[in-house]
Amino acid sequence: xxxxxxxxxxxxxxxxxxxxxxxxxxxxxxxxxxxxxxxxxxxxxxxxxxxxxxxxxxxxxxxxxxxxxxxxxxxxxxxxxxxxxxxxxxxxxxxxxxxxxxxxxxxxxxxxxxxxxxxxx
Length: 121
Fold this sequence. Notes:
By secondary structure, this protein is an all-beta fold. It is about 0% helix and about 55% strand. The chain has no helices and eleven strands. It has strands at about 5, 10, 20-25, 30-40, 45-50, 55-60, 65-70, 75-80, 90-100, 105-110, 115-120. Strands 2, 4, 5, 6, 9, 10 and 11 form a seven-stranded mixed sheet that branches. Strands 1-3-8-7 form a four-stranded antiparallel sheet, with no helix packed on it. A hairpin with a 4-residue loop joins β5 and β6 (about 55-60). The protein is elongated. It starts with a strand and ends with a strand.
């Protein structure tokens, strides 16, 4: 029932900026956090940044100082401001929501379909 809609990807030159946005729809008993992952060709999906409902933020080392995550996971929205983009940032970016169901304690991981970010001169 939960679906995540992403927007903001595109093609930019090195040094430019993009802002990714994500909004989830559907009912969830509890939400722990939302974030952004990315996957480049031939590589594993990796966490870029996340934000909890208590506003604790986490960043990949490669994103620190350049990317800023914001939003309100309780409202099922999250954004990622990406500045000073590098070719190494090229990947498909996926919005992620981590939640809980009332009937069991396992964490639930929901994913968007992905949005392409390409950084090239």
